[in-house]
Design a protein that fits this description.
single chain, alpha+beta, Arc Repressor Mutant, subunit A, 3-stranded antiparallel β-sheet, two-stranded antiparallel ribbon, about 20% strand, elongated
């Protein structure tokens, strides 16, 4: 994924100024001041561990729901997410999506570099993009993630 997915900016009316002729009382001009609400990246919302992540991701459709679940439930100590059969059942029930939709979303996240398959049903969240925990431990998590990437390339080459 090259760019973070952003919500569309919304405008809100801040004030209205009216210029009135002092003699006749006639309205000469009217100015409306708008302020654009800042676009929030989905990443920032999820990094803050927002309990309402599903609401924040509703504009992304089914993939947003699945990604919100992954971010909310991945293990901060290992950076890992277990996509076991039991986890699939929990996700299906909580997200009200088919297992096929959930599987294709997870596969898409792997293709885009958001997740890396470690072994079997274990995946690791890319700590460069999403990280939970103490910030000074992030570099160690990145090294682990990169070593997983290197191992995969070695297996392909041999």
């Amino acid at each position: 994924m090259d760019k973070p997915v952003k919500r569309k900016a919304k405008r809100t009316l801040v004030s209205t100024e009216t210029i009135i002729d002092g003699i006749s009382g006639e309205v000469l001009q009217e100015y409306r001041k708008f302020r654009e609400l800042a676009s929030k990246t989905v990443y920032a919302i999820m990094y803050l561990d927002d309990e309402n992540a599903y609401d924040a991701l509703s504009g992304l459709g089914n993939q947003g729901k699945v990604w919100g679940y992954v971010i909310k439930n991945y293990d901060a100590k290992t950076g890992g997410f277990n996509f076991s059969s039991l986890q699939k059942v929990f996700m299906k029930k909580e997200l009200q999506l088919s297992i096929g939709t959930i599987r294709s979303s997870i596969s898409g996240f792997c293709d885009s570099g958001l997740l890396k398959r470690v072994m079997g049903a274990d995946y690791m969240v890319n700590p460069r993009m999403f990280y939970k925990g103490e910030w000074d431990k992030r570099d160690a998590m990145i090294k682990i993630y990169d070593s997983l990437k290197a191992k995969k390339h070695e297996e392909v080459d041999s």
